[in-house]
Amino acid sequence: MHAPGYSAAERLERLPVSGYHRLIFIIIALAFFFDSMDLAMMTFLLGSIKAEFGLSSAQAGLLASSSFFGMVLGASLSGLLADRFGRKPVFQGSIVLWGVASFLCSTAQDVETLTLYRILLGIGMGMEFPIAQSLLSEMIPASRRGRYIALMDGFWPLGFVAAGMLSYVLLEPVGWRNIFLVLAFPAIFVLAIRFLIPESPRWLEQVGRLREADRVLRGIERRVMTSLGTDSLPEPQRMPRQAARAPGFFSAFGELWSARYRRRTLMLWSLWFFALLGFYGLTSWLSALLQQSGFAVTQSVYYTVLISLGGIPGFLAAAWLVERWGRKPTCVLTLLGGGVMAFFYGQSAVFGGNQALLIGTGLAMQFFLFGMWAVLYTYTPELYPTSARATGSGFASAVGRVGSLLGPTITGLLFPIAGQGGVFALGAACFGVAALVVWVFGMETRGLTLEALSEEEGRKPVLSLVDRGDGARAE
Fold it and tell me: Superfamily assignment of 8-229+259-465 in CATH?
C-alpha cells in the first residue's frame, strides 16, 4: 500500500515501528558508537601523551581541545551541506574522514602533528553527530522518535566505556599510537551505510525531488511490510505541510534567525555551549587528574572506566523519561543532577584517599551527564523544520564545540590555581546555567510530529505544546 497523494511525513508517520526501523537505528547508532570511541579515547590517553611529550598542563589542555576545534568546523559545515546535498552523502563522508584521521594520529611523532590530525578527526566527528540525529529523527515516527534518538545517544557512553576498556587492555603493551590505529578500522562501516541507509524522504520532498522521494518511500514501505509479515499498512492521516524550497547554503541559516525560530536558536545555542563547556572541561581530564593525584596510569584508567558505567543506566532512564515525562523537564533534571554530583565529585577527589566516595559520586555524576546527552540529541532536531533541521542541529553542536574547545583549556589553566575542587565547581556552575536557560526559554516537544512543531510559534506558551498522552494537547 503506497498511499499516492500523501506527503512523505504522512506516509512515514503512519508506519508501525518495525525491524526495518530498528536496522536503520542500529547502523546509525554503531557509527555514532565508533565516533564516540575516537573522541573519548583522549580522556584515557592524555596522561600518557602528556608524559611522552613532556607537556605542561596548559599544553595538554590545548591538545585535548584540538579535536573540538575541528568539531566546530565540522558541525558548522555538515548541517549546511546536508540541507543542501542530502543527509546520506554527508554522513558517509564524515565517517571516511574520521577513519583516515584516526590512522594519521597513529603516525604522529610530535605534539604539533598530533594536534593537526586531531583537528581533522574532529572535523569528521563534528560532521557525523548532527547528521545522525537529523537523519534518525526524520525516519522514526513521532510516537517513538524521542526514545530512539535518546537510545542512539546511549551509544556514546557505551563508546566511552569501550574506549576505556580498550586503553586499559592495550595502552601499556602497545602504546597510544597503536590504539589510534585500531580505531581507524571501523571506517569500513561506511559500506553498510551506502547500501542499507536511504536518503531522508522528508528532505527529498522538501527540495522538490518528488519522484525520488516516492521511490525511497515505496522501498521503505515494502521493507516495513516484509518485516511485519503483512501486505497492508494503516491509512495515512493528513498533517501540516511545508512548501518545497530550493536548497541553499544561506537560506537554511537565515531560517534559524526568523521570527519563528529565533528564540529556539538562542536557547539551544546557550544550552549546548554551557553544557559542553562543563562536560568536556571535566571528562577530558578525568584520567589525567587522577594520575596527578597519585594514581598509577592503569589505575586511573580503571577508575575512569568504572565511573563511566553510571552513564549506561543514565541514558536508559533518560530514554524512558523523554517520552514519559517530556524533553524539557528531563533536560533540566539531568543538568541539575549532573551539576550537583560534579561538585561533590570534585570535593571527594580532593580527598583522594576515600576511593568509595570518589567512585560513588563519580557514578552518580556520569548517570546524570550521559542522561543529559540523550536529551540534547533528542531535543535539538525537533525544534527546526526539515529545510533547516541539519543546519540548526549542526550550528547548535558547533556552538557547543566552542564550549568543548574552551573547557579542557580552561581546566588546564585553572587546575594549578584552584585544584580539582575548583575545576569541578566551575563545571557544576556551567550545568546550572544551562538548566536555567532551558527552564526559562525551553518548549516541550513530546508527542508532536516534526511538521506540527514547525507550525508552532516559538513565542507560544509552553503549556500549549504539551501532549497529555491521550492524543490531545493541553491548552
Answer: MFS general substrate transporter like domains (1.20.1250.20)
